[in-house]
Design brief:
Blueprint (H helix, E strand, L loop, with lengths): L23 H13 L5 E6 L3 H13 L4 E3 L43 H18 L4 E5 L2 H11 L18 E7 L2 E8 L20 E4 L3
Parallel strand pairs: 1-2, 1-3
Antiparallel strand pairs: 4-5, 5-6
């Protein structure tokens, strides 16, 4: 699960910075997903150590009588623009000293390599799978690590256009295992109607999607 909306009036790229908490809307998103998952066989809830992820996980854990575990491997990706506003017209990209970080979008050169994110995230998923073996686990993480892990599981390239990620606020990207092997990936948005209009795209319907893999 990706965390809910964050209170961020300055519009900075908060990355791994502390003290970025859910907004009131973000808390509502977390409660919505907790309600959506209330009937599921969840025996393990784990989250990134960042405040927004822990706060998103809390109502889900509470609904199942669980404590939220912490896994550092679920943390947001490192990014050199952390703490700055990011865009062409706001100064971050206008500063020539920053241009060296934009030379390789395939790695990427501005932050933690995609493959390193996949390695740590797959480790976290494996640990959650083992902790909930025969049941279900919920892992709360962040958009980019979730997206590249999904790309890896679906045998797609890791580099991508950030504008085309399918990983909205409070969305669920589900990995189904048979034994130790991922056999399908699904995606749904239980809190879609709470998303700001500019994030919902076209269509406006919350239709779960998924992909299964052959033997």
């Amino acid at each position: 699960m990706r965390h809910g909306e964050v209170h961020n009036p300055e519009g900075v790229l908060y990355g791994r910075l502390p003290d970025y908490h859910l907004s009131e809307l973000g808390k509502e998103m977390a409660e919505r997903v907790a309600d959506h998952l209330a009937g599921r066989d969840i025996t393990h809830v784990v989250a990134s150590p960042l405040d927004r992820a822990q706060e998103t996980a809390a109502p889900i854990a509470a609904a199942h009588g669980l404590k939220t575990a912490v896994d550092e491997r679920l943390i947001e990706a490192e990014n050199v623009f952390q703490g700055k506003t990011f865009g062409v017209g706001d100064g971050s990209l206008r500063n020539p000293s920053h241009w060296k970080y934009l030379t390789n979008p395939f790695r990427p050169s501005w932050g933690e390599p995609y493959i390193e994110q996949v390695v740590r995230m797959m480790g976290a998923l494996g640990a959650a799978r083992d902790a909930a073996r025969g049941h279900e686990a919920v892992c709360v993480s962040h958009q980019l690590p979730i997206w590249v892990t999904r790309c890896f599981a679906e045998h797609r390239r890791l580099w991508h256009d950030p504008r085309k990620r399918q990983c909205s606020l409070a969305s669920l990207t589900s990995f189904t295992y048979e034994g130790d092997r991922i056999v399908s990936v699904g995606y749904s948005e239980p809190a879609r109607d709470l998303l700001p209009a500019h994030l919902t795209g076209k269509g406006g319907k919350n239709q779960p999607v998924g992909k299964s893999f052959g033997a």
